[in-house]
Specification:
Distance between the termini: 62 Å
CATH class of the largest domain: Alpha Beta
Bound molecules: S-adenosylmethionine
Number of strands: 9
CATH superfamily of the largest domain: SPOUT methyltransferase, trefoil knot domain
Shape: flat
Number of helices: 14
Strand order of the largest sheet: 2-1-6-5-7
Number of domains: 4
Largest sheet: 5 strands, parallel
Length: 330
């Protein structure tokens, strides 16, 4: 596999990949890792790669040039381009497996406020995030991705150790023990020193499921469980009952009964009945028109957006936008 990285800080990649699995994968020729300085594609004297954002606001944004030409050059014919981004899909073990099966990745590490959207639209195949938080630049996320992918490459590490690892089958791995058999009065579970391999495997599987139930119940829906294992899972905790006070606060803030119903998982009729019973005066039902009003469309149109751009902005068809503009002219 080949991985090209486009970054403003190539030196950051030196020491993390000088050791351990990634270094061994490189030395063995399983992974070719090439780190490029994005400024190498800049054409001006100051090697500029960014500019202030249109519309104002803090920070700087990567300009389309030199980024787009740089991506196109390192991508060649077969590169799959990934932008590390706090707004991307979550990078998980399934994504690592998918990427590990590709021959050539191009990773783009953003910085400052991010990247001009047009480059994302034209030159990026997918955006991936390493978690719901913001770090300063895409370098550390790119390193996380490279490490997670490199260890999946054939021969990088012992296949058996991958097999039982957390997230491989959508479950967390169970607890691990090593010598001594007793530490400060705490003994290793007897089954692990029994020599009975079938019982050990059974115990490990049960512990892995138990741990996932306790720590990451959100993983269970997609975990690789047999029907019998699934049937033995504890029932999910009952949902907290919906409080009148929350329904009333949401309604008074202007949200309609349909949206409140969807949010709390009850029917719109129940929402209205409970609001009435709590003495809330219900508003008249809103018109059934969906999407922006004619006035909103006219105001945004005056900023220079095209009909298609307006349609994308409001999440409606261009016919709806034309309809609103027609209504406004009447
Ligand atoms: C300070 S961040 C920009 C955040 C951006 N203004 C936003 O609100 O989404 C700078 C760069 O760090 C990288 N980055 C930050 N958080 C990330 C995350 N959770 N996963 C992947 N990359 C991240 C991205 O490459 C991003 O362009």
């Amino acid at each position: 596999m080949r991985i090209d990285v486009l970054t403003l800080f190539p030196k950051m990649f030196e020491s993390p990949f000088a050791e351990s699995i990634v270094a061994r994968a490189r030395a063995a020729g399983r992974l070719e890792l090439v780190i490029h300085d994005l400024r190498g594609w800049a054409s001006d004297r100051h090697r500029t790669v960014d500019d202030v954002p249109y519309g104002g606001g803090a920070g700087m944004v990567f300009t389309p040039e030199p980024l787009a030409p740089a991506i196109r050059e390192v991508k060649g014919r077969d590169g799959h381009v990934v932008l590390l981004s706090a707004q991307g899909r979550l990078f998980d073990e399934a994504a690592a497996r998918r990427l590990a099966s590709l021959g050539h990745l191009v990773l783009v590490a953003g910085h400052y406020e991010g990247v001009d959207e047009r480059v994302i639209e034209t030159d990026v195949d997918e955006e991936l995030s390493i978690g719901d938080y913001v770090v300063t630049g895409g370098e550390l996320p790119a390193m996380v991705l490279i490490d997670a992918v490199a260890r999946l490459l054939p021969g990088a590490i012992d296949a058996a150790s991958l097999q039982e690892e957390s997230h491989t089958s959508g479950l967390l791995e169970g607890p691990q023990y090593t010598r001594p058999p007793e530490f400060e009065g705490r003994r290793v579970p007897a089954v692990l020193v029994s020599g009975d391999h079938a019982s050990i495997a059974q115990w490990r599987r049960a512990e892995s499921i138990r741990r996932t139930v306790e720590r990451r119940p959100d993983l269970l829906d997609r975990a690789d469980l047999t029907p019998a294992e699934r049937a033995r899972l504890p029932r999910p905790a009952a949902k907290a009952p919906v409080r009148d006070a929350d329904l009333i606060a949401a309604y008074r803030s202007g949200v309609g009964s349909y949206r409140i119903a969807a949010r709390f998982g009850i029917s719109p009729a129940t929402v209205r009945a409970r609001l009435r019973a709590a003495g809330v005066r219900l508003r008249e039902a809103r018109s059934t028109q969906r999407g922006p009003t004619a006035a909103e469309v006219v105001r945004m149109r005056a900023t220079g957006l095209t009909v298609r751009e307006l349609a994308r902005h409001y999440g409606v068809s261009h016919v709806t936008i034309l309809d609103r503009l027609k209504k406004a002219r009447k």
